[in-house]
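User: I've been trying to design a sequence by hand for this structure and keep getting stuck. Would you show me what you'd pick, starting by listing the structure so we're on the same page?

Assistant: Good idea, let's start from the same input. This is the structure you sent:
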């Protein structure tokens, strides 16, 4: 398996896949192999069929997780083993699309104020102010904060794309306060790793998760399932409610397809309340009789 794993790793790197995708694909093939206790190159279409059924019935995975597992196996069989892959024999389950949870602006302020350390506070503020994904925020560099043009440069986001987002004057002020409080000023990473924030590598995405979880508990919002991506959803929804157009939000979020961005129309209170229910246009002749009865 070690040799096959190395071959798969090389094929993933050749295609410049993101680190998170690489880890997901490798784990998917390893889990498949462990389930049957056999090398994956000794398993075939019938085994894949049984495994796909087990992901639902035995492991109780969601359709979206099953799709990822199948994608990892498809990549392995086509690009590593050089075998054919039958879409008819291995259908992808229908993908579920849930509306993401969002907080009100007052709740976001409560969350940020409830951060347990100044470092966690600036992480939460950066996530909300920029709409960055957690990996993008963790890997921000000092030079990405452009106070001359008032933009934040986000490099190699999802799909390897760069983009610029607005630099909030309030965030800039908070970043300067954070900078002055550091023992050692970082030369490269804006948010350095280790407990003293002095490492030569960036903070891990787990730290951003922890910052959200701890703050949510302290703010009394722990029943809302808040995570770093929640603040990204809040960023987009609150921009839409403030009058920003969908195309601008698409660019700021780095979405390839505008259709993905339209989900925030379902979350915006301004857009939902601006459309009256057809029930309100009805008049009931018997309404007066009910009032007097």
């Amino acid at each position: 398996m070690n040799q096959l794993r190395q071959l798969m790793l090389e094929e993933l790197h050749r295609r410049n896949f993101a680190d998170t995708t690489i880890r997901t694909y490798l784990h998917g093939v390893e889990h498949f192999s462990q389930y049957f206790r056999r090398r994956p190159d000794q398993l075939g279409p019938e085994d894949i069929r049984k495994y796909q059924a087990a992901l639902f019935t035995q492991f109780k995975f969601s359709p979206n997780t099953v799709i990822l597992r199948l994608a990892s196996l498809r990549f392995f069989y086509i690009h590593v083993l050089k075998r054919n892959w039958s879409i008819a024999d291995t259908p992808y389950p229908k993908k579920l699309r849930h509306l993401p949870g969002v907080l009100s602006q007052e709740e976001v302020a409560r969350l940020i104020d409830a951060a347990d350390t100044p470092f966690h506070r600036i992480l939460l503020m950066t996530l909300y102010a920029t709409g960055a994904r957690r990996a993008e925020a963790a890997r921000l560099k000092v030079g990405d904060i452009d106070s001359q043009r008032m933009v934040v440069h986000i490099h190699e986001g999802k799909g390897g794309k760069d983009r610029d987002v607005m630099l909030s004057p309030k965030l800039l002020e908070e970043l300067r306060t954070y900078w002055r409080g550091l023992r050692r000023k970082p030369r490269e990473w804006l948010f350095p790793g280790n407990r003293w924030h002095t490492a030569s590598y960036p903070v891990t995405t787990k730290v951003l998760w922890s910052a959200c979880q701890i703050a949510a508990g302290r703010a009394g919002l722990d029943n809302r399932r808040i995570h770093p991506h929640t603040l990204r959803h809040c960023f987009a929804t609150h921009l839409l409610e403030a009058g920003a157009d969908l195309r601008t939000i698409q660019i700021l979020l780095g979405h390839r397809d505008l259709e993905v961005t339209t989900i925030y129309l379902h979350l915006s209170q301004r857009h939902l309340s601006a459309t009256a229910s057809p029930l309100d246009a009805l008049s009931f002749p018997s309404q007066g009789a009910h009032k007097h009865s």
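That's my pick for every position. To get oriented when you compare it with your attempt: The chain has 14 helices and three strands. The radius of gyration is 24 Å.
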